Amino acid sequence: MKLTVIIPAYNEEKTISEILHRVEEVSLGEVEKEIIVVDDGSHDQTPVLVSEFVKKHANARMIVHKKNRGKGAAVINGIRNATGDILIIQDADLEYNPQDIPRLISPIVKKKFRVVYGTRLRNAPVLFGKNKTPLIVHYFGNKLLSLITSLLYGARISDMETCYKAFDKNVLQGVRLRSRSFNFEPEITAKILKKRIKIYEIDIKTKPRGWNEGKKLHTVRDGSIALWTLLKYRFVN
Question: What pLDDT score does 211 carry?
Answer without folding.
Answer: 47
